[in-house]
């Protein structure tokens, strides 16, 4: 298994104090995912929970819908010329009857740790139809429950404490319980690892849950939430306009700038319970 962190020498400057020191860095290595023995994608990731990453990626891309569609995941032996295993190549075997994706130029699966849509020819090419609808999901969260999520997520980031260089994704129940957390150098990978954890436990769809992410809420993350049947997406930073549009169209609740008791609800406000508060309507123009 690859290392999650590495040690490196840095020149530390703090005002007039200058010294050499050893710093802990988050590891970033390529992972090649093969499907039934053929190449599917290469992504830059932080080693660890690679099987979750592969399973979550397949669900996010519409290749699989749950644990029953995946027969096996294993690291490929002899990944290098000398026959050693780098743990950077794994092969996913689909269950009998599950069709292989159409590997056309329109759907290029090459991704990076920072961009979940790189290589996609157009927005239409990623408009994958979700297996479940979240529109009627009965999930409800109080403002107090939502406000506690960022701190709970941060407390669970073990590798971030040593490196300061990882994104995180956490899954919460409507009771406020943290079900699972995954970290990665790429925010899309962190979400895929979290969804993959649920896939491998046969938990999809993730009804009555909330996905909390440590960065911004992009279209891709909103799409991943929908593909896993998650009705609420919350982020500490801003959403994109496409993420808001997708949330509004699909019935997803989208919360941004979630910091303490402050937050913006961009879509699906019916799932946010206001405690002893009232909504002040916008003033009429003119």
Summary tags:
2 domains; Cytidine Deaminase, domain 2; 22% helix; 4-stranded mixed sheet; 6-stranded mixed sheet; 286 residues; alpha/beta; Ubiquitin-like (UB roll)
Order of helices and strands: EEEEHEEEHHEEHEHEHEEE
Q: What characterizes the major β-sheet?
A: 6 strands, mixed
CATH architectural type of the largest domain: 3-Layer(aba) Sandwich
Beta strand count: 14
Class derived from helix and strand content: alpha/beta
Question: How many H/I helices?
Answer: 6
How much is the average pLDDT? 84
What fraction of the residues are assigned to beta strands by DSSP? 25-35%
Per CATH, the class of the largest domain reads Alpha Beta
Helix content: 10-25%
Name the shape in a single word.
flat
- Determine the CATH topology of the largest domain: Cytidine Deaminase, domain 2
Q: What is the straight-line distance between the termini? A: 64 Å
Q: Structurally, how many domains make up the residues? A: 2
Low-confidence stretches: 116-127
**CATH homologous superfamily name of the largest domain?**
Cytidine Deaminase, domain 2
User: What strand order characterises the main sheet?
Assistant: 9-8-10-11-12-13
What Rg is obtained from the alpha carbons, in whole angstroms?
20 Å
Describe it for me?
The protein has 2 domains: 29-126, Ubiquitin-like (UB roll) (Roll); 141-273, 3-Layer(aba) Sandwich (Cytidine Deaminase, domain 2). The protein has a 6-stranded mixed sheet, with helices on both faces. A 4-stranded mixed sheet has the order 4-3-6-5, covered by helices on one side. The protein has helices at residues 50-60, 143-155, 158-163, 187-200, 219-227, 241-250, and strands at 5-14, 17-26, 29-35, 38-45, 70-75, 89-94, 141-142, 167-173, 178-184, 209-213, 232-235, 253-259, 262-267, 272-273. It has 6 helices and 14 strands. The N and C termini lie far apart (64 Å). The longest helix has 14 residues, at 187-200. 22% of the residues lie in helices and 30% in strands. With 286 residues, it is of the alpha/beta class.
């Amino acid at each position: 298994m690859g290392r999650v962190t590495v040690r490196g020498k840095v020149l530390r400057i703090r005002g007039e104090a200058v010294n050499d020191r050893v710093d802990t860095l988050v590891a970033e290595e390529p992972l090649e995912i093969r499907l039934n023995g053929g190449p599917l994608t290469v992504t830059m990731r932080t080693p660890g929970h690679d099987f979750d990453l592969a399973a979550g990626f397949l669900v996010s891309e519409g290749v699989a819908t749950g644990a029953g569609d995946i027969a096996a995941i294993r690291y490929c032996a002899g990944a290098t010329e000398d026959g050693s295993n780098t743990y950077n190549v794994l092969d996913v075997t689909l269950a009998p009857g599950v069709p292989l994706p159409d590997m056309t130029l329109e759907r290029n699966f090459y991704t990076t740790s920072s961009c979940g849509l790189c290589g996609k020819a157009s927005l239409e090419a990623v408009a994958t139809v979700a297996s479940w609808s979240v529109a009627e999901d009965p999930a409800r969260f109080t403002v107090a429950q939502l406000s506690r999520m960022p701190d709970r997520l941060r407390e669970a980031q073990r590798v971030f404490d040593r490196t300061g260089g990882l994104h995180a994704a956490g899954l919460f129940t409507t009771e406020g319980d943290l079900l699972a957390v995954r970290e990665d150098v790429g925010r899309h990978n962190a979400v895929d690892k979290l969804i993959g954890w649920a896939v491998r436990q046969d938990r999809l769809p993730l009804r009555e849950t909330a996905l909390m992410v440590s960065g911004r809420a992009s279209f891709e993350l909103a799409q991943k939430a929908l593909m896993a049947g998650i009705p609420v997406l919350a982020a500490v930073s801003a959403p994109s306009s496409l993420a808001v549009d997708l949330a509004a169209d699909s019935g997803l609740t989208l919360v941004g700038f979630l910091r303490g008791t402050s937050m913006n609800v961009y879509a699906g406000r019916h799932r946010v319970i206001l405690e002893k508060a009232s909504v002040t309507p916008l003033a009429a123009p003119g």
